[in-house]
Write a structure and sequence with these properties.
Length: about 170
């Protein structure tokens, strides 16, 4: 009886993870051995931020610190942004997931690295629209977002996929 329960539980888990893995679209994500870093913030400003460039028919943004390439054409199209070179991105890696957003975006994009140089991804609506100069920081192991045009800083609750107001931006209290 115990073996049947274990077998049944394993079967349910397999079905659940199969459905979960099929529910999100995927994109190409050229990973490196540095991908095993659990959390890393990629703080940048101005010309230091990763920007898109074109290779063949694909638009790519490279995480400069690790050399990883993210093929972002599908994300740009989902944001109704015409793919082009020079679009600035804010990128952070927390607990193995990649978080990214960019100039004029309306969503935070969460990438879940998978084997064979790909990642599944999903979008979460940003707390305010049409972001200008987004900046990610880490705050108590959570992603914190601020932007030039935002009135507040926001923490992202990864478990509930929601934004929490963290405080007013300087000069906007």
């Amino acid at each position: 009886m115990q073996k049947i329960k274990i077998l049944f539980g394993s079967l349910i888990a397999l079905i659940f993870f199969t459905i979960l893995s099929c529910s999100n679209p995927t994109l190409r994500f050229d990973q490196t051995c540095i991908t095993c870093i659990k959390s890393q913030r990629f703080l940048c400003s101005g010309d230091e931020c990763p920007k898109t460039f074109k290779v063949s028919e694909n638009y790519i943004v490279t995480i400069t610190e690790t050399g990883e390439n993210i093929y972002v054409t599908n994300i740009l199209e989902a944001e109704n942004i015409k793919p082009k070179e020079g679009i600035a991105f804010a990128i952070a890696k927390i607990n193995g997931k990649i978080f990214l957003t960019g100039e004029s975006f309306n969503h935070l994009w969460i990438l879940y690295p998978r084997p064979k140089n790909e990642a599944s991804y999903k979008a979460v609506k940003l707390p305010e629209s049409n972001i200008v100069s987004p900046v990610f920081e880490l705050f108590t192991s959570r992603l914190m977002l601020s932007a030039q045009n935002y009135s507040h800083k926001y923490l992202f609750d990864d478990e509930d996929n929601k934004w929490i107001i963290h405080g007013a931006m300087k000069g906007k209290e």
